[in-house]
Amino acid sequence: MKTGLTTEEIRIRVQQGKVNKTPEAPSRTIWQILRTHLFTTFNLLNAILAIAVLLAGSPKNALFVGVIVSNTIIGLYQELRAKATLEKLSVLRVSSVQVLRNGQETSIAAEELVMDDVMILKPGDRIAADASMLPGSMIEVDESLLTGEADPIGKKDGAEILSGSFVVAGSGYAMVTKVGSDTYAAKLANEAKRFKRINSELQAAVNKLFKVIMWMILPIGAMLIFTQLMFVGGIWQDAVIAAVSGIVSMVPEGLVLLTSATFVMAIVKLAKHQTLVQELPATEVLARVDVLCLDKTGTITEGDLELVSVKMIAEDSKERIDAVLSGVVHALPSMNPTQQAIRDQYEHAPDLGVTHTIPFSSDKKWSGAAFESEGAWVIGAPEMILQDHYDLVREEVEQEAYQGRRVLLLAQVSEADFYEDRIQHPRMVAMLIIADRIREEAPEALRYFAQEGVTIKIISGDNPITVSAVAARAGVQDAEHYIDARSLSDDPQVLADAAEQYTVFGRVSPHQKKLLVQALQVKGHTVAMTGDGVNDVLALKEADCGIAMANGSDAAKAVSQLVLLTSDFSVLPRVVMEGRKIINNLEKVSVLFLSKTVYSVLLSIIFSCILMPYPIMPIHVTLIGALMIGIPAFFLSMSPNRERVSHGFLKRVLKSAIPNAVILAGVTLTMFLYAYFSGLQTSEARTLAVLVLGGSSLVVLTRIARPLNGLKIQLVIVMLTLFAAAFLTPLGNDIFMLTVPELPHILSAFVLVMVTRPLLSSSKRLVNRFV
Hints:
Blueprint: H1 7-15, H2 30-38, H3 41-55, H4 66-88, E1 97-101, E2 104-108, E3 118-121, E4 130-133, E5 138-142, H5 144-147, E6 153-155, E7 160-161, E8 166-178, H6 184-190, H7 201-230, H8 236-250, H9 253-271, E9 275-277, H10 282-288, E10 291-294, E11 301-312, H11 318-331, H12 337-345, E12 354-358, E13 366-371, E14 375-380, H13 382-386, H14 394-401, E15 405-413, H15 415-419, E16 427-438, H16 442-451, E17 455-459, H17 464-474, E18 482-484, H18 492-501, E19 504-506, H19 510-522, E20 527-531, H20 537-542, E21 545-549, H21 554-559, E22 562-564, H22 572-609, H23 618-636, H24 649-677, H25 682-704, H26 710-728, H27 730-735, H28 743-770
Parallel strand pairs: 10-17, 10-20, 17-19, 18-19, 20-21, 21-22
Antiparallel strand pairs: 1-2, 1-3, 3-8, 4-7, 4-8, 5-6, 5-8, 9-22, 11-16, 12-13, 13-14, 14-15, 15-16
């Protein structure tokens, strides 16, 4: 008789630490999130510059520090919000477990399990720790979240069962052999503990620029301070403010803020489609993806089986067979997915007296029931029921298999043999055709990716022939190119070639999923991976963009960048479209920000060399940056755009930004020198320089906004009006340190602004010709 552990034995194991304490999911802690967003080189630089301006006694020139605060708050809010949502989604954690202790059945929390505890298992129970089946027990276990294998697996005396799987049929006892971090599921999840920053080309480009600028800041800043102090004759405060102005202009802080803000706008939109974005750049990366790896179950299929048809073989009436089928599935004590598919078609139990039942088990692969008036009937695999006579139906069964369908045989057997749990001389009556139910929306989503040049790879733990057939039914291109992953080579180059060659991979192990993702990346692909189980964690972590289902394991959700809250991959086209809009529009408006960066570098170097006062103050940078770059860029980034995203973001942006910057720096320098040598005060010369630089920036903005429509024209007019108000109102003059120029000088500035347009057009033609 089984008694389980005693109170004293439990106490000793608790003291030894042999308790089923669940390891934390491999996500970042709150402190790690805070540290990532707060302590950055970008924030440090801006903080130092702000302090320098404040010490110089000019608080208004420190308004640029608002970018630090805004960008940090946006990033922190989104990631902390995603973390909180995931914690609420922990739907797969086992709340309680039935165990034998001190000879009595009791219910305990999963984390209170200790080594050698005896678990009591019945259908529907989720297994909370690795264990070994005890004698006399027999269950069917679904290990799909661990191995990807959809079919239930039989477990009896001495068989190992794994945490994270669940019982679909049978009952029995199992002794806990591994707990906590030693379990199979925990070890798989632990391999993904290292946090991996998502590979964003946009962020990489900004970071690359920022590194270059950081190397330039110290020498240029030192030159500006030295020349402004020693040769221009100003006080140290003016020299510091001038240096800060040049440095602040060089740093594309507005682009950093705009990138975060537009990502958040996309995240808000995607939340309406039940998509949780855990990292801001995830939408961008998915927009760049050219290979999407999918599992069969839960993505292109619903995860439920469907009884497609009942093909009669014998002369029995259809009414009788319907009654028998219904009677068998309603008589059986537990449901596996196949039985449930039949029961869905026969909801009501017939009025048949049941005398004996035999539940399904994986070793015999059939189940059945005997009735008072109808005799004994069995349902199961044809080869197991017919045995030596399987050739009678082999051809038809194999034809169905190549269509991704499963065939079950309904047969009548001798009651005497049935009571002895055996089959002899069965009478074939009907064949049941079972199929995975294709998601209604899957074909349309697959067509979208095919049209957009995204290659689909199906990576599954199921039989490759079946997966191939199901994929073909769903509309996956080249689904007939399949392979059993057990035959794949371990050689990286051979595996990379196979990853390119085949579309469907069956019988794939968790580590092979990761290797296949790496192989595709070696071939130069940007790879997205969908998954829901612990078996998918390694591949999800390795992919450029991991996409988890909300009904999947906590570990899978923790390592993914996107979580589909309805577990429906058909929302991914919307995510891709949103990402494309963001990236393509950000590429356009990035020209505005990087033009400012380049012309600031040029002006800083030029005015350090000619030993003259720097023409732009930090508050002027704020004015031009907000009205001619920041605010319009935000609205332009929201414009519709469905063009495909291509690599080479930074090269294309600099190709436009550098010529623009040379022209903007040139007209600004011309205006300042003209005003300065005309005998105007430095403040008046700076006002005219700001007027020309702002007006020329507006010309660049108008070109970037093309093709113009009503809304874009209104945007340009509003920015022009606000810019003019800064010059024409006393409040604007006071805030932005501007003077009112005389009319002849205003006309000179207007002429320079007008010249900007043909110069920009000529420079573009020149660049396109030689670059």
